[in-house]
Specification:
Blueprint: H1 3-48, H2 57-68, E1 73-78, E2 82-89, E3 94-100, E4 119-121, E5 127-129, H3 136-152, E6 159-166, H4 174-180, E7 192-203, E8 207-208, E9 213-215, E10 217-226, E11 230-231, H5 241-259, E12 266-275, E13 281-282, E14 285-294, H6 297-317, E15 327-336, E16 339-340, H7 343-357, E17 386-395, H8 415-433
Parallel strand pairs: 3-6, 3-7, 7-17
Antiparallel strand pairs: 1-2, 2-6, 4-5, 8-17, 9-16, 10-14, 10-15, 11-13, 12-14
Helix pairs in contact: 1-3, 1-8, 3-8, 5-6, 7-8
């Protein structure tokens, strides 16, 4: 090698490294200042004032106000309560960034000074307590922080930003509603979509990027078991639906262990069972509610077909008449496919994160269960959008033992590291995809 050329190359690389280090520090410092000056108070506002799925009226209004103040072109009411904010910045790809907005019908018992005391009538007309028990307040706050940093760094990127505040994630309806209302036709269609979820059981300050399946597909299933009612003292005169339902529940546990590939994950959980009215009456109906989880279409099909087969087989074994066989209904409005990251893009985002944060802060993703996410719809194969969903740790490492799970009334995260890391990751991810050319 030419020694002069080698020395010059070395100086250039060192200068580039220092420039990158300085840029990283500048971004981190700007986010820290923004959290201190604005985002901490905004997070507490969102946490104190949660709204239920499909009822995010004031939440979406506040999010739209924040984004509009940063110079974004904002449209409200997309998919009923969704928000779309656009910033054009020359030629380049279009990148969608998503935050979900809805709370849960949970009474908060976290003990936080800014805990929610809200009650709200849900879309079914039932009054419920409401809590941000899944971190959507973090996601919205981080969205505003991300929007501010990207607006201030327009010289560093080229293309189009589409930021969305999505309703009704908790009932798996919001993404579909926004898409049905023209998200990909009325507004610039994205080439890429990014989203993240704060994760209470992961160390604050860490970022994890699944390289394939990020979340599972989810189906909600209603199963009605019919019987022939009679006196509790004369069970031989009827068909006891409580007994039939009980044996169906037990038999369903064989589906995952004996019907699907043991190398493929699957879950069939009976979450609710309702039947009977009095001690000495054998009724004529029991209602079960199931959640079914799978990571691919083949496993999903086997599980859903297995539920029908087992329900009918157990009912027939107990002498249930043909006109009273169980009814199995898969709820089409409460289903979502697996959230499958685009693998090349996931690798690109993970590399960008490791370059920015360092390897220690970007560990391999570890799945703890089969949770679902309607973010899956944005990257569905028919749309041709390269989607990546990642996770941001939410609890200081020293406090991880015994931390409350998502959807618990005790749920809480550490706001500052969760929000600032979320903003930093979203900005780095967006800049990686929108590199100025």
């Amino acid at each position: 090698m030419n020694k002069t050329l080698g020395f010059a190359t070395g100086l250039a690389l060192a200068a580039a490294t220092l420039d990158a280090y300085g840029a990283d520090n500048a971004l981190r410092n700007d986010i820290a200042a923004d959290y201190r000056d604005r985002l901490a108070a905004l997070f507490e506002h969102f946490h104190r004032n949660p709204e239920l799925s499909g009822r995010e009226l004031q939440t979406s209004k506040r999010l739209a106000q924040e984004l509009r103040s940063l110079g974004y072109d904002v449209t409200e009411g997309v998919g009923k309560t969704g928000v779309v904010a656009i910033m054009l910045n020359g030629a380049g790809p279009t990148v969608l960034l998503r935050a979900d907005m809805d709370g849960l019908p949970v009474e908060e018992k976290s003990g936080l000074p800014y805990a929610s005391a809200v009650r709200q009538t849900d879309i079914a007309g039932v009054e419920q307590p409401v809590m941000h028990a899944c971190g959507h307040d973090v996601h919205m706050t981080a969205m505003v922080g991300t929007a501010r940093q990207l607006a201030a760094r327009k010289s560093d990127w080229s293309g189009t930003l589409v930021l969305i505040g999505q309703p009704a994630e908790e009932i798996a309806g919001g993404a579909r509603a926004m898409l049905a209302d023209g998200l990909y036709t009325r507004f610039p269609k994205p080439d890429y979509a990014l989203g993240f979820h704060v994760w209470a059981t992961a160390a604050a300050g860490t970022v994890m990027v699944p390289q394939s399946a990020a979340m599972s597909g989810v189906d909600s299933v209603d199963l009605v078991v019919h019987g022939v009612g009679t006196h509790g003292a004369s069970p031989h005169r009827g068909v006891d639906p409580v007994l039939v339902a009980s044996q169906i529940v037990v038999s369903l546990q064989s589906l995952v262990s004996r019907s699907i590939d043991p190398l493929q994950p699957g879950v069939v959980t009976v979450g609710a069972i309702h039947g009977g009215s009095k001690h000495n009456i054998i009724g004529d109906r029991v209602d079960l509610q199931l959640t079914v989880r799978a990571d691919n279409p083949e496993t999903r099909t086997k599980l859903l077909e297995g539920i029908e087969r087992i329900a009918e087989g157990v009912a027939r074994a107990h002498g249930t008449p043909d006109d009273k066989l169980p009814e199995v209904t898969v709820l089409t409005n409460e289903t979502t496919p697996p959230t499958l990251n685009d693998e090349p893009t996931a690798a690109q985002i993970q590399a960008a994160f490791r370059s920015h944060f360092g390897d220690a802060r970007v560990p391999p993703n570890r799945r703890e269960g089969m949770g679902g996410e309607d973010f899956a719809f944005y990257g569905a194969p028919e749309h041709g959008v390269k989607a990546v969903f990642f996770f941001v740790g939410g609890t200081p490492e020293a406090e991880l033992t015994g931390v409350a799970a998502h959807h618990s009334p005790l749920f809480k995260i550490a706001p500052e590291p969760s929000i600032t890391t979320g903003v930093e990751a979203m900005v780095v991810g967006a800049l990686e995809l929108l590199k100025a050319r």
